[in-house]
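Loading example: each entry is read as two labelled lines plus one structure line.
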Amino acid sequence: MYNRLRVLLISLVLGLVCLGALWRSGVVWAWGMKAGSGRPVQLKVWDWWSPSANEEYGEYFAAVEKVYEERYPDVDVVLQIVPFGNYVQKLATAMVGSAPPDVFQSSVYWAEGFYQRGMLLSLDSLLAQAAADTGGQRLAQGVFLPSAWRHNHTAEGRVFGIPQIIDAQCLIWNLDLLEKAAQEDEEIRDLFEHLPDGTPDYQRLHFEGVRDWEHFRRLVKKLTRYGQDGEVVQAGFAINAYSGGAGMFPPWLAANGGRFQNEAGTRALFATPKGVEALEFMARLYWEDKVCPPFRRQIADGELFEEGKVACIAAGTWTGKDIIRNTLGWRNFAKTAFPPGPRGSGQKTLTWGNMLVISRNCPNVEAAWEYVRLVCGLEGNLLRLKYLGYNGPRLDLYQTPQWREAAAARPYLANVPQICLAGDKLRHTEIIATDHQANPVFETLLLRYPEIVAGQGPYSSVAAALKEAAGNVDQVYGRYHQQAQGWLARRGEGE
Amino acid sequence: MINKGWRALIPYLYLAPALSLALIFSLMSMGISMWTSFHHFDAFAGSAGYAGWENYRRALFAADSYCWLALRHTAYYVVLCAVGVLLTALPLALLCQKVRWGQALFRTLYFLPSITPGVVLALVFYHLFGVWGNLLDQPRTAMPALALMGVWAGAGYNMVLFLAGLTEIPQHLYDAARVDGANAWQQFWHITLPMLRNTLVFVVVMTIIGAFQVFTSVYIMTSGGPERSTEVIAYTIFLNAFAVAGQMGYASAVAWLLFVVVAVFVAIQMRVFRSRKVYDE
């Protein structure tokens, strides 16, 4: 009995030691890889876009993988989906655990922080090597929309990402409701482009059709319908006060000539008269003009819009495809930028270009870079246009027959390039932390505006509330900046 | 045959796997967390230097700290949950005990929420609360609404615990009480409740510990809103640890503050409940 037990224990220990050694050497992992694909190099790609989201995404990712693997037969593209909400912690965990993705999509929410924390590879040398590329393969600042090439490099010009998309916040209008109202209202009729015979083109809106905030207010009031008890049955505009909905303040601020933060990410700039006007404009649309559906956490603006209960919502330029899918084919909507406020000039919005980046410890830099070149080149832009209906960050995309065909088939895309060009840079420093400080204040201002104006709310005025929020955001920036300087200094990149 | 020395070793061998897991995943993690709380720390970039008590000072005294607010909200949630669980689980257990037929069915039905993932419950209640008068939209009602869900989710589990406690009470105590002319209320007050003391202590302590750690419902349903009215301590810890760069040290400090608060609460409870002798056969 004793001998048996001893043999058993020794065997167990030896077995564990052998297994550990094999695991550590990577042999077990390599066996798994070879048995799986038969390709020697595995390229791990992370994204929060998922092929299982719907058939369009499935087809897009399959097409990218097919093109890439045909071109590089020794590389196996392994796409791993990580939810947007868990991206940062999973990425940090993977990197600390020496199992990072080779290449991944980074939101502008995190890109700057990822680079400053040393998680990303600088792409300068790879870009320099590819400087001779021409046409659709070329990756350089000049081939992208200026608004796309903003979040992907440091103030000193070090590039850490290549724009994969260009997104912007915009106003989306229900053209069915507008056309109906336009039959009796000249001001609304004037919003539409004109056909060659001079009649309104009810599929297209003038990019600058909405002249300013007062004009916008008049239009949405005309588009609002009330029930017998005075309740809004068709809203002119929708504002969501809760959580992320309060994040609609920044584009209105931009339209009034204001900025949320300074370029260096060290100071909040929204506690100004421009900010006060922007927030009061939003609050008055709800409380005084009564053009919005009631503030309800569970009611999504997008759903109301798709149900035809709201004439205009603020959303992203990427939403067109989603609206068509959710409404089983309805596409009679159009997009514009935000009209200028009293201190603004011209149509404005906020834009950003989420990007492909390469991990600092990527073992397959060459394969990763080729993936970036495919996805961020014209070919990748065309694949996204074909399967997902997205516009892209490259200028040459808009010169292709495919874009012209897409814009003709989906008129809502017509204004999108202009919207993307009209945008200021989306805030980019510690967005989640600043949201935590600022959004509850914006939320309170929207929910309790009448009380605050009457001097009975939790803040003495809108200006005081914004000042408090900006002060707290400054604390976030200060702490972050101090740490970022430490991280950069450690790599010899500090100020 | 195994000699005496080996025989003495065998229990430790059986314990070793569980002990090593506890050491690695609990005690060692707690040690690292303690160390982290005294540093400026980022999950990826690592330590950016010793911070001393700064993280604790910031949590407790900085103007932009929501630690006290979150602690207050958490305490409110804990009270609502503890009271709610006691007022639902014990009556349910008493009712369930009286049922002659289908007790297993009732037990299963009431227990079901306990084995349903919290995220699923949160999503269902998120929409239910939208139908039931927008409970999540008002600062006054949002936290009670979350507690309502917490109580609903925990009542079945605690009911089963109470039920187990009730079956342990000797029947002859009730028989004797009835012979002495005690009515139902007197039997409950003088026999059931004292005899359930140990179960009661366990249920209350576990409910309080669980409620102090409330996170899923807040994360899914309110994100701490409206107007920060449901910002709880676990949400603050999560946000700083995982969503904000370089704040792992601060988050760890807040986590240790939570640990202290929970430990004090539990210690007080244990002391209060143990102050009187439990009935013994």
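The CA atoms of residues 49 and 81 of chain A lie 7 Å apart.
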